[in-house]
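Box 3.1 A note on notation
Throughout this textbook, protein chains are presented in two layers. The first layer is the amino acid sequence; the second is a token string describing backbone geometry. Keep the layers aligned when reading.
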Amino acid sequence: MINYKDLGLVNTREMFAKAMKGHYAIPAYNFNNMEQLQAIIQACCETSSPVILQVSSGARKYANQTLLRYMAQGAVEYAKELTGGKGIPICLHLDHGDTFELCKSCIEYGFSSVMIDGSHHSYEENVELTRKVVEYAHKYDVSVEGELGVLAGVEDEVSAEEHTYTQPGEVQDFVGKTGVDSLAISIGTSHGAFKFKPGQNPKIRLDILAEIEKRLPGFPIVLHGSSSVPQDLVKIINEHGGKLKDAIGIGEDQLREAAKSAVCKINIDSDGRLAMTAAIRKEFDEKPAEFDPRKYLGPAREMLKQLYMRKNKDVLGSAGHAED
């Protein structure tokens, strides 16, 4: 059993309390490898932002659970190095855990927060599974995120064909019965880079969010599937051999509006993938003789860093809040 505090990590409770008070959202960025992790830490240190490092089930299989533990510990030390010893608040979070066993394993390997996604079960089974995870996690002061509603789209091992919006009438009962520390809701965001069809004017249901806030005053709300799919990145990819037709995301203005409310965690994964892919395709296309991974992963890391710095400043509002 590895306690997350021994790795220098924090859970989300204090993070979320400060975010709600300050009307901003904590960035929750997914990573699978070293370059992504470096970019996230660099971006958040340079903008003085707290951060949630997210690991999906697929990423855990890809990167190896033991290596992830040391990467997270290394991220804490790296942040101190970049900030003259101060560091920034860093949480290591399981994204879309779908079983009690997976959540338990992550907690035992030093995760400071886990998500149990029981949204594919019936309401009653979701409550039962979520409560079981909460009871185990809270023994070790690990925070737990639950989910009500289903997001459409595909990302890693999570997929659904259409939205099932969160029912505001269920949220009080769900939170009361499970004891979760935060709640992921479905209000129109979507997983993946192909969230919407051309010609659509995607709008997230801020009215549902407002109703949920009324029923759960002061309770931390989470938005998944919140990549904006920047069209400049899509253009770079397509100009250099890619075939990302009709990749459309959520407007950043809507996310900024949501971040001023009880939404205190916003998940972004696809935008990061697009940034790295754009940089790598450009390098490969312009320098076809290059074969040193550092020469194409380095520019990819830099593009990802710049993207996340802008997200922290202009979209999430988390820049400058690491020392709150």
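The chain has a mean pLDDT of 91. The first helix runs from residue 13 to 22.
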